[in-house]
Design goal:
Layout lengths: L1 H19 L5 H29 L4 H29 L3 H5 L4 H16 L3 H9 L11 E2 L2 H14 L1 H5 L1 E5 L3 E6 L24 E6 L1 E5 L2 E2 L1 H5 L5 H23 L14 E3 L8 E5 L12 H8 L4 H4 L3 E4 L1 H7 L11 E2 L9 E2 L2 E5 L10 E7 L1 H4 E6 L3 E5 L7 E13 L5 E6 L3
Parallel strand pairs: 2-14, 7-8, 8-17, 9-12
Antiparallel strand pairs: 1-15, 3-4, 5-16, 6-16, 9-13, 10-11, 11-12, 13-17, 14-16, 15-16
Helix pairs in contact: 1-3, 2-3, 5-6, 7-10
């Protein structure tokens, strides 16, 4: 009876594979066929031994072999059918812009999100030499979902929207630079070329730190086939990521988070040196000058070199902008101008204004206004890959999705950003 039960278990275990198999299960279906064949061989050896010993085979062994044989046939048929489908031209996928591998990953990811089946994702990541363990934060989301998350972040994360960005595959992005610049000079056509000073290269390091969000879903939401799970995850994590990034890119201390541009040393523009941000003081403690207050804004604009000024942006909080928008020039014209079209930005002295709520408020010796070419001045470094770990246990009856990405940031050109200090010096 034990042998018969084990044969029944084997054939019963194979049946669900047949019902739930998909294109991504070709290898597993064939593995089932091969393991079934090994079991069939073992039982057949027992049958032959019984015939030699007793002259007749045990009916229980015959029945068990029949069950294994049927299960083997179903597994072989399934593997053949799926292999045939995989070999067909994927016209629909090409029209959708997805390769067969990308479509397979999306299908496996949706199965993991909805039902917790991770065998397909594990196999795909092992095949791509990527570790899908919990130490890495779960499994890589499909490339389309990663692009959607990054696109939405670029739209709603104020500093990311104006900063330079790089994608890397390692943990740290290293950027060499020469603070003194290259040694150059003019010479006549036939004159001797004097030896130039050797370049003293230094290096800026931008480590990537882990940022996470943990949206929750109900079982009913995950069971609803009309719900686009990828769009849902992108929508749930975008705001959490954007808020955390916004604070870190402005004032992060560089410990377990990116280093914000406000965390670097600040010196008066007359004493500026590489490695610090230059500032212009208003001359009044916690306020703009009583007379001609707009002049300090013009001084700040022209503290930037012309090459940086062409693409410069004002960065300040909503409340600071509320104060600045009250300023007028000598002819009574407001310096601040509203957006000209829907979705456009307001401007100040013809330069766009970006609201970053994490900028300091107006106070004595505070730096509530930044002005510069942030695309050249500040660098956001994204490590490739957004990962999700499904957690149905920690907050029953809800399912949590621990979603992580790695991001770093820091100033890459200290000449490109200037600050306005609300102080006397």
């Amino acid at each position: 009876m034990t042998e018969l039960a084990s044969a029944h278990d084997l054939s019963g275990a194979l049946a669900p594979e047949i019902k739930s198999a998909s294109l991504s299960e070709v290898d597993r279906a064939f593995d089932d066929f091969r393991s079934g064949f090994e079991s069939w061989k073992a039982e057949n050896d027992r049958r032959l031994a019984e015939i030699e010993r007793r002259g007749v085979a045990d009916p229980l062994i015959e029945d068990k072999m029949s069950r294994i044989d049927r299960a083997m046939e179903e597994s072989r048929r399934l593997a053949d059918d799926l292999a045939l489908k995989a070999a067909r031209p994927s016209l629909g996928l090409e029209r959708a812009g997805l390769t067969p591998a990308a479509a397979e990953h999306e299908a496996a990811f949706e199965g993991y999100i909805r039902n917790g089946r991770d065998a397909d994702l594990r196999r795909l990541e092992e095949k791509a030499l990527s570790i899908g363990s919990a130490t890495d934060g779960g499994y890589l989301v499909p490339a389309e979902l990663e692009r959607e998350v990054m696109r939405r972040l670029a739209q709603i994360s104020p500093i990311r929207a104006i900063a330079g960005t790089r994608q890397v595959s390692g943990a740290v992005f290293n950027k060499p630079y020469s603070a003194a610049g290259p040694a150059v000079g003019w010479v006549a056509e036939t004159a001797a070329r004097p030896e130039t000073t050797g370049q003293q290269l230094q290096q800026l390091a931008f480590p990537t730190m882990e940022l996470y969000a943990m949206p929750a879903a109900t079982a009913a939401l995950l069971d609803d086939a009309a719900i686009d799970v990828e769009a849902w995850i992108a929508e749930e994590v975008q705001q959490a990521f954007a808020e955390q990034e916004g604070a870190a890119f402005v004032s992060g201390d560089g410990l377990s988070k990116p280093k914000g541009f406000m965390a670097y040393p600040k010196v008066a523009e007359a004493s500026w040196a590489w490695g610090s941000l230059g500032y212009v003081a208003t001359g009044a403690a916690g306020a703009l000058p009583a007379s001609d207050p707009s002049d300090v804004l013009i001084d700040l604009v022209y503290a930037l070199k012309a090459g940086h000024r062409q693409n410069a942006t004002w960065v300040m909080s909503r409340r600071t902008q509320g104060e600045i928008r009250k300023l007028k020039d000598a002819d009574g014209n407001y310096l601040w101008a509203p957006p000209t079209t829907a979705g456009a930005q307001a401007s100040l002295l013809n330069f766009p204004v970006v609201e970053a709520e994490d900028m300091p408020a107006i106070a004595t010796d505070a730096f509530p206004i930044a002005f510069g070419d942030f695309r050249r001045g500040y660098l956001v470094v994204d490590r490739l890959g957004v990962r999700t770990l499904r957690d149905p246990y920690s907050a029953k009856p809800y399912v949590l999705f621990y979603t992580t990405k790695r991001v770093g940031g820091g100033v890459q050109d200290f000449e490109a950003i200037k600050l306005l200090k609300f102080g006397t010096a």
